[in-house]
Amino acid sequence: MFAKQKLEFNWCAPVSGDGFYLGLPVWERPPSLEYTVEIFKTAERFGFRQILIGMGFNHHVMEAWTLATAVLALTINAGAMVAVRPGFYSAPILAKMVVTQG
């Protein structure tokens, strides 16, 4: 028989700003560590286990790996999933970035 798999939803934390609408030229709420921690804690409270942090190359104010490390130090249960854009980073450099964040 097949093992019963559980459907899991995750949340996302903005690294370049936030607002009611996507794609605005000016964000209604600028990015900050405090705001990202608030998102993580709210997601934890509602049962989300992981929060995605996008690793951008353009218009991203906060660096994803550093932000994930800082937020995880300030939260209890949530995990961070850093989204990497394939093809924009070489595998050896990406591996070095991941290893040096610990």
Write structural notes for this entry:
The chain is of the alpha/beta class and 102 residues long. It has a domain at 30-99. It is 31% helix and 13% strand. The protein is built from three helices and three strands, in the order βαβαβα. The protein has helices at residues 33-45, 64-73, 91-99, and strands at 11-13, 50-54, 79-83. A three-stranded parallel sheet has the order 1-2-3, covered by helices on one side. β1 (11-13), α1 (33-45) and β2 (50-54) form a beta-alpha-beta unit. α1 (33-45) crosses α2. It is globular. The model has no long low-confidence stretch (mean pLDDT 82).
What would you say about this model in short?
This protein is of the alpha/beta class.
Average of pLDDT: 82
Unreliable stretches (pLDDT < 50, length at least 5) are none
Radius of gyration: 15 Å
Roughly how many Å apart are the termini? 40 Å
Strand content: 5-15%
Strand runs, count: 3
Shape: globular
Order of helices and strands: EHEHEH
Number of helices: 3
Task: Indicate the structural class.
Answer: alpha/beta
- Largest β-sheet summary: 3 strands, parallel
- Strand order across the largest sheet: 1-2-3
The share of residues in helices is 25-40%
For the structure shown, list the relevant keywords.
alpha/beta; 3 helices; three-stranded parallel β-sheet; 102 residues; 13% strand
Topology, element by element:
Blueprint: E1 11-13, H1 33-45, E2 50-54, H2 64-73, E3 79-83, H3 91-99
Parallel strand pairs: 1-2, 2-3
